[in-house]
């Protein structure tokens, strides 16, 4: 049986409230850091951390909003997120603080380290990879991509997985092409899954204002343009993430 707990830590002038999920038994365990979408750390990423722990991973879902979520308030979310993703130093500081929490857990295997980021959390993940954090696997789902410069990625040895929707206005086909060309020129092992008809945050099931699931497929809260739930592609992307971790840090793959 896995164990979970909140972990509070200070960075970026806020007290963050992350979610740690530990496998049953004794380590060392492969360790995975998770960066949440711009709306905040909510049930989806906590659940994914728990599922990773159920399959033998030590998983820590970081927080970068100080425990706050922005369901139904896209303007407040953008006011928090946009300055952050324009500041690589802040993103690195936030990501490193969360990584320190993960690696301080007894049993965390520093030699089997993976990372998974959604949306703005994917941007944080990319900054950590670009800064030289020795990940063995990097998975990003519908991120905002940085400027494509091959020299930024020459020291990256981890395989990359990018999952995005064909209709995502924030991660356009032109941006994906430019970014992957930069990875190719840098000698990075990369792969891209483009899900036909999927929009931004295609994994995000609609929520009520309190964050609970509506049970439907149409968002009832206000969102940024270009956001849409696609349950089939959400499951496919999750399987792809597990396939990457299976290949790189040694846990058998599972179905979504």
Automatic annotation (TrEMBL):
Domain Dienelactone hydrolase span(s) in chain numbering: 18-247
EC identifiers of the protein: 3.1.-.-
Keyword Chaperone: no
InterPro entries: AB_hydrolase_fold (IPR029058), Dienelactn_hydro (IPR002925), FrsA_esterase (IPR050261)
Listed GO MF terms: hydrolase activity
Domain of life: Bacteria
Alphabetic keyword roster: Hydrolase
Protein family according to the UniProt entry: Belongs to the AB hydrolase superfamily.
Protein name: Dienelactone hydrolase family protein
Protein source organism: Streptomonospora wellingtoniae
Classification lineage: Bacteria, Bacillati, Actinomycetota, Actinomycetes, Streptosporangiales
């Amino acid at each position: 049986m896995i164990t979970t707990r909140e972990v509070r830590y200070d960075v970026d002038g806020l007290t963050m409230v992350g979610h740690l999920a530990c496998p049953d038994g004794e380590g060392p365990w492969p360790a995975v850091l998770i960066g949440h979408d711009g709306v905040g750390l909510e049930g989806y990423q906590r659940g994914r951390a728990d599922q990773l722990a159920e399959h033998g991973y030590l998983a820590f879902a970081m927080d970068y909003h100080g425990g706050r979520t922005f369901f139904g308030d896209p303007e407040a979310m953008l006011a928090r997120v946009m300055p952050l993703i324009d500041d690589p130093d802040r993103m690195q500081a936030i990501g490193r603080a969360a990584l320190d929490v993960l690696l301080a857990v007894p049993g965390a295997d520093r030699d089997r380290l993976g990372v998974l980021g959604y949306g703005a959390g994917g941007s944080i993940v990319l900054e950590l990879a670009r800064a030289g954090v020795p990940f063995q696997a990097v998975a990003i789902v519908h991120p905002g991509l940085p400027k494509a410069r091959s020299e930024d990625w020459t020291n990256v040895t981890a395989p990359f997985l990018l999952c995005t929707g064909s209709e995502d206005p924030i991660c356009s086909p032109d941006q994906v092409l430019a970014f992957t060309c930069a990875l190719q020129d840098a000698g990075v092992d990369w792969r891209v899954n483009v899900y036909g008809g999927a929009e931004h945050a295609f994994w995000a099931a609609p929520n009520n204002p309190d964050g609970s699931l509506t049970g439907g497929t149409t968002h009832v809260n206000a969102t940024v343009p270009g956001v849409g739930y696609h349950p089939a592609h959400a499951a496919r992307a999750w399987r792809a993430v597990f396939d990457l971790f299976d290949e790189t840090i040694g846990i058998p793959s599972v179905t979504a």
